[in-house]
Amino acid sequence: MELEELRARLKPFCEARYPSPVEIQEVITMPGHAGFAYGFRVACAGQVDSWFIRLPPPGVNWVGTADVLRQVAVLNALDGTDVPHCSVKWSGDDEQWFGSPYFVVPWLEGDVMRLGAEDWGSNLSADQIHEFGRQAMSSLAAVHKVDISEVPYLGDPVPFADDVTRWDRFYAKAAEPERLKDVPTVRQRLLDTVPQNAPVGIFHGDFQTANLFASKDAQLLALIDWELTGVGATLNDVGWICTFSDEQAWVENTDRTMFLTPDTLIDLYQNAYGQEVQNINWYRALAAYKFAIISGLNLSLHRRGKREDEVWETTALSMKPLIDRALDLLATG
């Protein structure tokens, strides 16, 4: 949606929710959301409120990750917990306002955790980073303990095997398939060793530092970007963040800056959850497997001009290391 069109739509929307005339200020496209998340400010009665609105991607069916009301279901369930998150102010599926479902939450001041050499997090001490990690993993454990009866909108749990086989169609479309030549072997080993009696609950789906929103003094303000949320294997979230912090999963001399080590992240999660996690290497292997395929798919989309993003040229260099790491983790159990 163009910003001027959104501004025009926001005015009657806000006038229906504020007690007096409003002025819509500073409507911007938010970073990292492919143009369907926006920030805006509302001036009313001498006060200015700042909001973030999420809409579905344009031109897609409002199902799965494009169903923004799935995020609403989880965020509402978290209102009764200590998990830092953005509480939903307004949401709905009445198309009169924006032509689609929507939700609005406060526009937070801060940034996601960034640890690159020139990023704000590079000035943090080791103790500050560890404390931020403790907050993050404690919050994740709390998410996983929310009763799934609180989120009936999310539907039935995703079968563990589906977490493996759902990537088949993306593997078939990946660029540079020679980097993924061992994908069939990893896929079969994952299916042969699916964990039994594993914990099931609400999962985030993309739990990594890019979705950990922090204050300037490195306090966790919110877990953000819940578009991949669902009910299923909760330890997938632990495996995911471990993979993004696993030096052995990435090509040497990468400019990727790691967070805490996988062992540290696992310990912090176990301490918060209150029990030892089982079969964690399976979830780490699955995460590496998934991201290798995702990288190949996005590299293909980039090169074909479907979704241009030069970063995938560099990220794709780790496709083989990711698959090799998955094999190693599955071998060690």
Folded structure, characterized:
By secondary structure, this protein is of the alpha+beta class. The protein has 2 domains: 3-106, Phosphorylase Kinase, domain 1 (2-Layer Sandwich), CATH 3.30.200; 111-332, Aminoglycoside phosphotransferase (APH), C-terminal lobe (Aminoglycoside 3'-phosphotransferase, Chain: A, domain 2, Alpha-Beta Complex). 39% of the residues lie in helices and 14% in strands. It has helices at residues 3-15, 68-78, 95-98, 126-144, 160-165, 168-171, 183-192, 235-243, 262-273, 280-303, 311-315, 319-332, and strands spanning 23-29, 37-44, 47-54, 90-92, 102-106, 111-112, 200-203, 212-214, 220-223, 230-233. A 5-stranded antiparallel beta sheet has the order 1-2-3-5-4. The protein has a 3-stranded antiparallel beta sheet with strand order 6-8-9, covered by helices on one side. Strand 2 and strand 3 (47-54) form a beta hairpin. Helix 4 packs across helix 9. It is globular and about 65 Å long.
Distance between the termini: 48 Å
Overall form: globular
Helix content: 25-40%
Number of domains: 2
Radius of gyration equals 21 Å
- Decide which structural class fits the backbone: alpha+beta
